[in-house]
Amino acid sequence: MSLLIADQLTKTYSASGWFRSKESAGSGVNDISFVIEEGMCLGILGESGAGKSTIAKMVLGLLRPESGKVLFQGVDLYRSDRAVRKLWRRDLQVVFQDCYSAVNPRMTIRQIIGEPLRNYEQMSSKEEQRIIGELLETVGLDPGDMRKTPKEMSGGQLQRVNIARAIALKPKLIVLDEPVSSLDMIVQKQILLHLRELKEKYGLSYLFISHDVLAVNVLSDQVAIVDKGMMVETIDTASLFDCVHPVSKRIVLS
Ligand SMILES: Nc1ncnc2c1ncn2[C@@H]1O[C@H](COP(=O)(O)OP(=O)(O)OP(=O)(O)O)[C@@H](O)[C@H]1O
């Protein structure tokens, strides 16, 4: 059974009032379909406004499609009850682009990473501390960092904290929504390679949203290229630079 199936997802935004413009009226995504198998990373590659975040939100259960469905582990996300969705939430995590707004600045790193553990697991404070220490080591940080607050971390370190929080419950799939775009090139590469290692070590699957061909090339097994809300081509990453669709060529080879 495939881990995630997105089947003909369509969402149209209706711009209104002061914000109505030719560009935004009728925008969104149309007839988006893809499959993610266990242990696989699918990259969604497209320029700004192509519809990448809309796709991510629909997969995460945050935006109901007008038509089409999202099946996660065989369960139809938008037709399941709250209890099923809570279980489903555990296996499907997310890392957003803006590492600072993804965390509560008043919490310590221990509280941030411990949040999903407290929501889903019952464990002693000592056990929680041990697991958080291990998670910090797994993402290349020092266990002593758990006493820090977000403002004492660099952007790259804080994004590693967000990754530690995302893997805390050993999810099946992580949606990575431009996870390295706000970091400098060297840190971007370190984190992408680290995500690749984690994927191989724990058999994780990723939906990797990006506008960056090189980043997609590092992490993805397959790439779906989106443009103006449509999926124009899906291609194995090994053949990415041999893409055939004119839009893919423009995006990949520019
Ligand atoms: N809430 C909204 N209301 C109206 N239009 C929207 C809304 N959200 C997105 N859009 C429009 O839908 C299209 C797709 O937006 P989306 O944010 O999914 O693109 P994106 O590829 O993620 O872009 P970026 O890389 O700039 O974040 C764009 O034309 C955008 O203006």
TrEMBL record:
SUPFAM superfamilies xrefs: P-loop containing nucleoside triphosphate hydrolases
Record-annotated ABC transporter domain positions: 4-253
Keyword Ribosomal protein tagged: no
Molecular-function GO terms, alphabetical: ATP binding; ATP hydrolysis activity
Keyword Methyltransferase annotated: no
Keywords: ATP-binding, Nucleotide-binding, Transport
One GO term of the biological process aspect: transmembrane transport
Name this protein carries in UniProt: ABC transporter domain-containing protein
